[in-house]
Design brief:
alpha/beta; Rossmann fold; Dihydrodipicolinate Reductase, domain 2; nine-stranded mixed sheet; 14 helices; binds NADP nicotinamide-adenine-dinucleotide phosphate
C-alpha cells in the first residue's frame, strides 16, 4: 500500500447567504484590490453567494464606474484564473461612487444608490459595509452611516446591515475601548464583524476540528502530556511599502495582539458547548483571561524585542530597517518579538507557551507546534528516555497549510535502529489545489451572519490589557525593566537574546 493520506468527505455543511450588496469603502486601496475584490469574485464564481448580489466601491479618488470595473478585472486577473464570461457577469454587478465621507451629500447619494442597486439586483435591503480605510476613520464613518439611516435594519430580521472593520482595533487598551464605545453607540454587537484574517485560514480553523472532532488528541492536550507549545509567525519580507504604518505600530501591535493571541486561544481554549459563535467566543476570551500578566518589573525576562539590521534576503543584500524608505534613521520600532506566556488554569498550569514573530526572518512560515513530553522510561536499553525525541504535532498555517506529527519509529536494519518519522499531510496534496483565501471564508461568514471567526469587543480588550505593561515599559525606554531593542541580521531567526526565553527552561526554539 502506498504511504499516503486519504480523505473521504463525510459531512459538508454548505450554506448560501441571503441576497445582499457589499459596499467597500477604500475601494481604491491595497486591501480592496489585492484581497477583497478577488475574494468576492471567487465566492461568486464558485456560486457560494447568490446571483442577487452587487458590489459598490466607494473612495475619494475620482473614477467612473467603467474605470472601476477595469480595476476589478485587473484585480481578478492578478489573483485568480477566471473564465471571461464569469468575470464579465461579476463586473456588471460592480459600480463605483466617489466622494468625501464627511460630506452629507455623499451619504445622501450613497443611500439613493444603495436603494437603486438593491432594487435592480433584488438584495432586499441587506448590505455589508466593509471599512477598508485607515483605522482613524472607523468611528466617524460608522457615525455618518448611522446618521444617514444606512445602518437601520428591517423589522423582525427582514433585512440586515453589517459592518466589517479591519485590524488594528485601537493601539492600546484605552483607544480600543474608546473605539468600541464609539461604534457600539450606533451598532449592535451582532452587526459588527472585526476581522483577523488569520482566523479565516483553514489550518487555524482545523485546530478546532483536530481537537474536538477526534478522540485521540484531546485527552493528551494538557499539562500532563504537553511539554510546551511554540507559535511562530515569520515573514521573510521587510517593511516594504508599509513603513509609514509600521513606524506608528510596530510588530507587537501588528501581529501579537491579534494573530498570535488568536492562535494561542484556539490552541489552549476549553471545548465550547457547541460550534455556535458565542460559545466559541466565550471560550476564546476565557482562556485569554487566564494568561498570566507579564510581570511589570521584569518584562525583559518574558518578552524580547529586536530590529533587523542589514543582512540577506533570498540570496540578495537586504537593508537595515532604519535604512528603509520612510523609516526614521534612529527608529526604535521593533520588527521582531518573542515572548514566553503561562496560562494559569487547570489544563495548562506550568506549560510554557513560546510565541515569536518577526520580519526579515529566513523564510515565510507560520505554525503552531505542540511538543509532547518524553516517554517516562526507555525499555530500549542502552537508549535513555532523552535519546528518544519527544513527539511533536505541528499545524502548518502558511505557506503550506497542513498537519505533521513526528513519532519515533524503528528504521530497517540493526535491532535497535530508531529515528524520527514524520506523518504529514498538506491540504494541497490531499484536497487538490490551494485552500480558499482567508478573506473568502470570512466574507462568506459575514454574509451568513456567522460571527464565530470574528473578534468580539471583550476579546480585543483582554488582549490589549495583557500587552499594557509591555507597551508601558517600552514607551518609557526603561531598559532596566524592558530590556534593550536588540539588533539582528536580516535573514536570521531574530536576536540571539530571544534564545534565552526557552533556553532558561532547558528548551530551544524549533529549527523550522
Ligand atoms: N493591506 C492589507 O493587507 C491589510 C491587512 C490587514 C489590515 N488592513 C487594514 O485595512 C484597512 C485598509 O488597508 P489598505 O492597505 O487598503 O489601506 P490604504 O491602501 O492605505 O488605504 C485604503 C484607502 O483608504 C482611502 N484613504 C486613505 N486615507 C484616507 C483619509 N484620510 N480619508 C478618507 N479615505 C482615505 C484611500 O482611498 P481614497 O484616497 O481614494 O479615498 C485608500 O485607497 C486599514 O485599516 C488597514 O490597517 C490592511
Amino acid at each position: 500500500m502506498d504511504s499516503a493520506v486519504t480523505a473521504r468527505l463525510k459531512v459538508c455543511v454548505e450554506l448560501t447567504p441571503k441576497p445582499c450588496g457589499v459596499v467597500v469603502f477604500g475601494a481604491s486601496g491595497d486591501l480592496a484590490q489585492r484581497k477583497l475584490l478577488p475574494a468576492l469574485f471567487s465566492l461568486w464564481a464558485r456560486k457560494l453567494i447568490p446571483p442577487s448580489f452587487f458590489v459598490l466601491g466607494c473612495a475619494r479618488t475620482a473614477m467612473t464606474t467603467a474605470e472601476f470595473r477595469e480595476k476589478v478585472r485587473a484585480a481578478i486577473a492578478r489573483r485568480c484564473t477566471a473564465r471571461p464570461e464569469e468575470c464579465e457577469a461579476f463586473v456588471r454587478r460592480c459600480a463605483y461612487l466617489a466622494g468625501e465621507y464627511f460630506d452629507p451629500a455623499f451619504h445622501a447619494t450613497l443611500a439613493k444608490t444603495l436603494a437603486e442597486s438593491g432594487a435592480e439586483f433584488g438584495t432586499g435591503g441587506n448590505a455589508v459595509f466593509y471599512l477598508a480605510v485607515p483605522p482613524s476613520l472607523y468611528g466617524a464613518l460608522v457615525g455618518r452611516l448611522s446618521a444617514a439611516g444606512l445602518l437601520r435594519q428591517g423589522e423582525n430580521g427582514e433585512s440586515w446591515r453589517r459592518v466589517v472593520i479591519e485590524k488594528p482595533f485601537g493601539r492600546d487598551l484605552a483607544s480600543a475601548a474608546a473605539l468600541g464605545r464609539e461604534i457600539g453607540r450606533v451598532l449592535a454587537e451582532d452587526q459588527i464583524y472585526r476581522i483577523d484574517h488569520y482566523l479565516g485560514k483553514e489550518t487555524v480553523q482545523n485546530v478546532l476540528m483536530l481537537r474536538f472532532a477526534n478522540a485521540v488528541f484531546e485527552p493528551l492536550w494538557n499539562r500532563r502530556y504537553v511539554d510546551h507549545v511554540q507559535i511562530t509567525v515569520a515573514e521573510s519580507i521587510g517593511v516594504e511599502h508599509r513603513a509609514g504604518y509600521f513606524e506608528e505600530t510596530g510588530l507587537l501591535r501588528d501581529m501579537f495582539q491579534n494573530h498570535l493571541f488568536m492562535m494561542l486561544s484556539l490552541t489552549a481554549m476549553e471545548p465550547p458547548a457547541s460550534f455556535a459563535a458565542d460559545n466559541v467566543r466565550n471560550e476564546i476570551v476565557k482562556v485569554l483571561r487566564a494568561v498570566r500578566p507579564f510581570p511589570a518589573e521584569d518584562i525583559r525576562n518574558w518578552i524580547v524585542r529586536g530590529q533587523y539590521a542589514a543582512g540577506e534576503a533570498e540570496g540578495k543584500a537586504a537593508p537595515a530597517y532604519r535604512a528603509e524608505k520612510n523609516v526614521a534613521p534612529d527608529s526604535r520600532i521593533e520588527t521582531y518579538v518573542a515572548a514566553k506566556l503561562g496560562i494559569d488554569n487547570w489544563r495548562w498550569k506550568g506549560v510554557p507557551f513560546y510565541l515569536r514573530a518577526g520580519k526579515r526572518l529566513p523564510r515565510r512560515m507560520s505554525e503552531i507546534a505542540i511538543a509532547f513530553k518524553s516517554v517516562p522510561h526507555s525499555i530500549f536499553i542502552p537508549l535513555l528516555p532523552e535519546d528518544l525525541s519527544p513527539n511533536v504535532l505541528v499545524l502548518n498555517v502558511q505557506p503550506e497549510e497542513g498537519v505533521a506529527l513526528t513519532i519515533q519509529a524503528k528504521q530497517p536494519g540493526a535491532k535497535l535502529c530508531m529515528g524520527d518519522l514524520t506523518m504529514k499531510f498538506n491540504y494541497r496534496d490531499v484536497f487538490g489545489g490551494e485552500p480558499p483565501e482567508a478573506y473568502e471564508r470570512l466574507l462568506l461568514d459575514c454574509m451568513l451572519g456567522d460571527q464565530t471567526l470574528f473578534l468580539r469587543e471583550d476579546t480585543i480588550e483582554v488582549a490589549w490589557s495583557l500587552l499594557a505593561p509591555v507597551l508601558d515599559a517600552w514607551s518609557r525606554a526603561d531598559e532596566e525593566r524592558a530590556g534593550p531593542l536588540y539588533p539582528y541580521r536580516a535573514g536570521t531567526w531574530g536576536p540571539e537574546e530571544a534564545d534565552a526565553l526557552p533556553g532558561r527552561d532547558g528548551r530551544e526554539w524549533r529549527a523550522p
